């Protein structure tokens, strides 16, 4: 099926109705059950006052309701706007206004907390909820009419919008990335190819589906007819590991914080995962010490280090597992169907060891930012995505990220990567997490401020131990001016560290 298809048809076409698609703690759902749930959403949308291309807010945790709402919205030719269940009221209202959404598919608990944010909207909740007269209309998902197979009811396909995915906002204001049906299809096919996914694969999903990395797990495994095991209890990593073993998961995907916690705060090394074929790591840099520890902890498992952005639907590059140690720290090369170049300020490709910006081309590159023409013009030029990530290239063409353009310090007039300092800090076996920001300094211009999370909950004396470690590893001008020990780093619901929160603390 080509990139001209509707995403939902592309993902679910030809699947056996009795094969398991989704496994939640609340129950298991087959492809047939998923199709019927999608049909309910499609029928509701087609009979509503909405029109093709209208934006539909989706505010819920991972669930059958979420998956059916997301896929049903796209099948009906509407545009899904997935948002986290814990979204702040101010952000929710802003996104509602900027997308002009008049319809929302909402978890009942979210509606109870933020009822005023949905005033005047037509709302469907995941379960029956207390009637709210301020809403335009109110229905419950289990009570929606059963939908027939809608066939080609969703005319939207190809370059038509499928979703507006808001970025995590870890470095600034969230922006809505316009993702087309063709974008999702191209990226899904590419990921399936390099991961060699099949209908026998079963992924453990601890990532939220509203996040592009989490959505990619859903897309790829539904497309191949595999299964997704969903577990949101990662605050109890032992429980998740046991479920992976019991469910016979062949894959696991996480951002750096997931792997750091598993390696330093769980019994991962002592467990056996007989069916675990591969793990996917993306969503930021997992520093070299952790990569080596992960290799030791899972000796028979393929480890895929990957790089991407919401602006590229999900994925841009991967490092083949066999290159993990020989190209340690690299994000690899472009995924199938994508071209990556590292360009200097003159638009020329850099030579080995020189630094430039990663620029991407491919069918997965988004259409731009929702109603942000100036920002779109800056990042999306001539069909290329200017990622804002600085990198070098080695003699073999492997890419190495230096840092985000915004995540540098200027110490003594020298540009210093926060990432490099964090990597040094995490060589200490006393630490689970570390984040570095810059603070004003009369002598240096900017000095290092480090936030650290220790291996144990005892924080007394940790800052002193870390400073002693730093004196052995860092030059004097990069020694932290201040070290703050925290019980945990602030993160969004996708597990990404919120440096903006640290700067404001």
What does this structure look like?
- With 505 residues, the chain is an alpha/beta fold.
- It folds into three domains: 7-157, Rossmann fold (3-Layer(aba) Sandwich); 182-404, ANL, N-terminal domain (Rossmann fold); 408-503, GMP Synthetase, Chain A, domain 3 (2-Layer Sandwich).
- The chain is 28% helix and 26% strand.
- The protein has 14 helices and 26 strands.
- The chain has helices at residues 7-12, 31-47, 64-75, 89-99, 108-113, 181-195, 212-223, 237-247, 256-264, 288-297, 373-379, 418-425, 462-473, 499-503, and strands spanning 20-24, 27-30, 55-59, 79-83, 103-106, 122-125, 137-140, 161-166, 176-180, 202-205, 227-230, 251-254, 278-281, 302-307, 317-319, 333-334, 338-343, 356-362, 380-381, 384-393, 399-404, 408-411, 414-417, 431-441, 445-454, 482-485.
- The strands form six sheets. Strands 2-1-11-10-12-13-14-15-16 form a nine-stranded mixed beta sheet. Strands 4-3-5-6-7 form a five-stranded parallel beta sheet, with helices on both faces. Strands 17, 18, 19, 20 and 21 form a five-stranded antiparallel beta sheet that branches.
- A hairpin with a 5-residue loop joins strand 20 (384-393) and strand 21.
- Helix 2 crosses helix 3 and helix 6 packs across helix 7.
- The mean pLDDT is 91.
Features:
single chain, nine-stranded mixed beta sheet, 505 residues, 26 strands, 14 helices, Rossmann fold, five-stranded parallel beta sheet, alpha/beta, GMP Synthetase, Chain A, domain 3
